[in-house]
Amino acid sequence: MSIKKVILYTVIVFISLSVIYPLFFTLVTSLKDKQSYFTDIYGLNISSWSIENYIKMVKDFNVLQKMLNSVIVTAGGVLLTMAVAIPAAYSMNRISKRMLFILVTVLIIFAVIPEQVTVFSQYKLFLDLDLINNHLSVILSFCAKNLPEAIMFSCLFFRMVPIQIVDAARMEGCTEPRIMQSFFVPLCLPGLSVIAVSLILSMWNSFLIPLVMLQNDNTKTIVTSLAMLDRRHGSNIPFQMAGNIFAMMPTMIFYAIFRKKITESVYENSLK
Known about the structure:
The longest helix has about 35 residues, at about 235-270. About 80% of the residues lie in helices and about 0% in strands. It has a domain at about 60-230: Orthogonal Bundle (MetI-like fold). The protein is globular and about 75 Å long. The protein is built from 14 helices and no strands. The chain has about 270 residues and is mainly alpha-helical. The protein has helices at about 5-30, 35-40, 50-60, 65-90, 95-110, 115-130, 135-160, 165-170, 175-185, 190-205, 210-215, 220-225, 230-235, 235-270. Keywords: Cell membrane, Membrane, Transmembrane, Transmembrane helix, Transport. This is ABC-type glycerol-3-phosphate transport system permease component. It is a multi-pass membrane protein. One of its GO terms (cellular component) is plasma membrane.
């Protein structure tokens, strides 16, 4: 075996372990009780393992409701963002290059504004609209935050569609919405899928916006609720690790179900 392959395999193994070990440690710790954890932090005494932390997380912490809240705001945010970004990106492909450059510059400016700068003005707006502790406030905030990037990348993928296809469709009498729906979206589906997956991960792990907008315990997301565990349960690390497992489960299940599609989308997009 050549030196290059040895170095390559070593790097791959190191990266794999750096990802797998934290997940393994989190899972093992979540199966311990508080006493056994502080007695032997890295121990693998299987006889002391139990699912008590998970039962307590469901009964006392109401983790399933918080996971549902996260699913609602994430799904709503992704669907709304893509529903606005796709027509906007399609429209940008019909304007001149000079105007496109100006619009992209404006989108970049909005994209780089930190959410910490705008979150409190958004809070005041939603407070006046009586939408605080309402999932709609988070969904709209997610859309406003991620829309510039979604439009830019969607526009980039749409510009790869051959103009001959569009001209032929127009000659056949297709309307602009029909052209977008029947040609642009299917042809650019791999790229749009990558954008959607990126939005899902970003919105699911978002902390600041849900923390400010959702102050009622029944409407909080799983991520913001887990951040408050220290106040209610002290330094019960195994209990917190059980909560982390619950927080990771939906994204891991999503990846397990759509793994093949996601991989194909990334591969097809890289070839383009």
